[in-house]
Structure to design on (1074 residues):
């Protein structure tokens, strides 16, 4: 085997290893293999599972790396983020193919997701370089005032090593080198990832890409580790470790709340950013329904079946007023849904939960099955489904509001606009809330908007909530239970804020001040000086 | 009585009333009087205590006021904050005199604190007008991109009605119209205050000033209420109310953690900003000790006895290396302390806790009493005290690290710089950490600084931690247990951030967009547009 082939193999071969600092480690606490959800067969190789010793070592390394990593220059840190993106691309098609096998997601989707993952890393490189996240603030000394004012300067510093829990539904963009990891690295935090058990091979390939980037950038090896281990014990141990300063999680409400509780019970509690559960209500206002019901029906069904409905922003609830326009909309939606093929879900567990959920929903009092997609007997294939219920019943039965992860949605039939508003006021906190509104609906939309603002992190007009842009203005967050902390977003530039806290430097001599706060603004970052914002200098 | 006299009386007379919306209410759940801590006598009049019905009404009003208050213009909200300051000043000397009687604090201190309280309100008026808190962010639509990008705009909105718990030690600046209330109002949140039981009369006078400001500015009456009731039940009820969206608290660790737990156990958890416990270590580096030990000794003793030591930033711990310079410093400090008169503490409860605390500290193994201030047999007068312990013992006995609220401090004697660093690494989270450093100490200070950055929210050089400036760069916050949320500050302009969360508006039509996000920047606020910061327009 020639050297270049060997080197390619080291990028692409899945060996069942974790990454702990500079080490490639086979866990010694049992074995597990990934499962192909389409074929329900196990995929080689076996992965050694981690134990307390591995958690201990990853956290000790992260702590050891923190002080040097948090004081890397903006250029160094940005180059590291970009290098991770380059290293992920360098893996090539092997990464996509392993992810396809482990998740059942199609090639185009995973190639798109890989692009999104790399763009996310590159966006955070820009965010780091721009330096707004430092929140540099200077208040001049006022020695002649009574009492005198000291020289006060503020910058933000990172919270400490961050524990990241990979999500099942985005094996690249919300997993090992996804949004939580990228934003934590951008903030200056070392990261310990607990990989999602459903895609360990994908996780290994990406973790080794990050490991190569750490080495290539000359950073302390402890900046990054990735652990593989099923069950909650390892996760709880990681969140309990005194060296961990914050937690990023995307997954179920039960899983997220378990971590929130563990973090709150620590001797020193830490923040947990858990993105959990959302049914993303879509309000169809009468004008929009009359004007473009059939087109909207197709858009709705496309959105709810996208990726087998396995998005946090899947439109699980649609609210509209009963009448001929809704009947026409529903007929069209039913036809569109009937044409949708069954789609493979991510894991047998998710598939079983979906099957149980639709069965329960179909049998709930007052719920009518409107349409079903095509069925399939193969593997984890799920059949899309559309249900309907009267607003009165929806408002009185809280179980109808539980997230049903998969390609199913519930139509809430209202008698009038008042019913619609009651539904808006009734629902729990959401990642998104959507209104379809024609110009004739704007007066009502203006009244509904403040209600929905209090319920959701993102308000979508005349679109569908799936598709979360990675940009400066994105908010992927929202009131409980959609997340555990509505003050933050887990997607977009502001995700960096989750891992920072302010520190004030009072009368600190120039030679001891951080660069961000020194005279002459050597970093060339925006600074607030005596209450005035200065873009440079 | 002529009309102007009657009107003055209505500003200055303490009647034993709460403020609930536009109402002046005498609680019907028992009575209590304030206690003069100097004389240990009760002060008239009795205050009717609130019950569940009062909490219910205050929260219902706050919720009813929220939507209109949160959409007041920047100018309206700023004018409201300024009007509160004017109304507080209009009360005149009666406010100071009532506060003196209820707290034992001297006139000059309370006049200064009133000034600080009003400056704080005025600072937040400026903060509101400047509009940076809105974090307005616009990402342009990219319709030709594959996939197309929607138009995305972000602003911050307030969390909802805020429950504020007045502190005992700042009856004006951290009580009814103090920093928590001012920053919550600035963010757009109605406020329900639970007054501190030690100064109900001061609280009533200030609450009625706020009530007048609400009326004068034409705001919904529910924007502000103030409840009076001792014990924890009412506080827990308030924090449990589903209409409350966040909590501000300054007080003891036990009290703060009780609220944190209550908030976490709600069906919808909410953030609690509890400023709790800090011993504010002061590190005396060898060069500074050699250069100006005696002057520093006086400054240290002045700082620790200021306001009977009843500051969150009181220097409760001083760390230095044993030797002749420290001996000279201690001799000077002891002399300065011996000259300090006994000072009246805020309440009999605080006084008793201090007396018990110093007794326990004096008897702890390895602790030596170095000096005591003058004693007094009167009322709640407390005697200052200085103790000493070897670093080795301090590091092995966690009880020596407990906050002792009052004019006492513990000197930790180190053998060398290494010992000093071990103490720095050992201490819990703090509001402040101080270094006294001569130029010859800078190399060591540079090594100690990253350790202290991780322990404290404010790093003070060559000064003392008491005296918390209200400005843009101030951080009055820090790692647990100094606060429950190190990501925030409770003093200074950034305190507004605690009560906000981001919302993204996707493809929202211009006529439905909030002003902050409309074309042409009608508010003239800084906005981040496609990743570039624009200061105006």
């Amino acid at each position: 085997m020639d050297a270049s082939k060997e080197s390619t193999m080291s990028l692409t071969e899945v060996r069942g290893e974790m990454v702990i600092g500079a080490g490639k480690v086979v866990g010694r606490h049992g074995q597990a293999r990934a499962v192909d959800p389409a074929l329900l067969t196990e995929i080689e190789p076996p992965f050694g599972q981690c134990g307390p010793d591995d958690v201990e070592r990853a956290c000790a390394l992260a702590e050891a790396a923190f002080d040097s990593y948090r004081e890397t220059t903006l250029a160094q840190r940005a180059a590291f983020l970009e290098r991770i993106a380059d290293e992920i691309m360098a893996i090539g098609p092997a990464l996509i193919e392993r992810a396809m096998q482990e998740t059942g997601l199609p090639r185009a989707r995973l190639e798109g997701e890989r692009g999104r993952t790399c763009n996310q890393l590159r966006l955070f490189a820009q965010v780091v370089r721009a330096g707004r996240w430092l929140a540099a603030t200077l208040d001049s000394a006022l020695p002649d005032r009574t009492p005198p004012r000291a020289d006060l300067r503020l910058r933000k510093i990172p919270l400490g090593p961050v524990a990241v829990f990979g999500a099942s539904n985005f094996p690249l963009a919300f997993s090992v080198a996804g949004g939580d990891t990228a934003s934590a690295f951008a903030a200056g935090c070392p990261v310990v990832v607990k990989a999602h058990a459903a895609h360990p091979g994908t996780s290994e390939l990406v973790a080794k890409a990050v490991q190569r980037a750490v080495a290539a950038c000359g950073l302390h090896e402890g900046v990054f580790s990735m652990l593989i281990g099923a069950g909650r014990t390892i996760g709880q141990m990681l969140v309990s470790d005194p060296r961990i300063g914050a937690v990023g999680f995307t997954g179920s409400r039960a899983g997220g709340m378990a971590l929130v509780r563990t973090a709150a019970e620590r001797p020193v509690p830490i923040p947990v950013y858990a993105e959990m559960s959302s049914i993303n209500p879509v309000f169809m206002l009468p004008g929009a329904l009359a004007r473009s019901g059939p087109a909207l029906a197709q858009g709705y069904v496309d959105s709810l079946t996208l990726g087998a409905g396995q998005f946090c922003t899947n439109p699980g609830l649609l609210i509209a007023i009963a009448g001929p326009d809704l009947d026409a909309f529903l007929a069209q939606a039913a036809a569109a849904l009937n044409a949708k093929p069954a789609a493979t879900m991510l894991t047998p567990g998710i598939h079983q939960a979906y099957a149980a959920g639709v069965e329960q929903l179909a049998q709930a009092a007052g719920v009518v099955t409107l349409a079903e997609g095509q069925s399939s007997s193969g593997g984890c294939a799920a059949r899309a489904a559309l249900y309907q219920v009267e607003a009165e019943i929806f408002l009185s039965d809280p179980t109808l509001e539980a997230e049903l992860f998969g390609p199913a949605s519930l139509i809430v039939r209202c008698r009038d606009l008042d019913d619609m508003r009651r539904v808006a006021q009734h629902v729990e906190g959401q990642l998104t809330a959507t209104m379809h509104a024609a110009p004739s609906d704007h007066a009502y939309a203006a009244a509904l908007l403040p209600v929905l603002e209090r319920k959701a992190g993102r308000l979508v007009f005349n679109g569908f909530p799936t598709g979360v842009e990675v940009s400066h203005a994105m908010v992927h967050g929202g009131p409980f239970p959609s997340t555990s902390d509505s003050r933050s977003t887990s997607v977009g530039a502001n995700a960096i804020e989750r891992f920072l806290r302010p520190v004030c430097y009072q009368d600190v001599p120039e030679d001891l001040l951080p660069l961000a706060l020194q005279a002459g603004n050597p970093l060339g970052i925006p600074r607030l000086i005596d209450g005035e914002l200065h873009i440079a200098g």
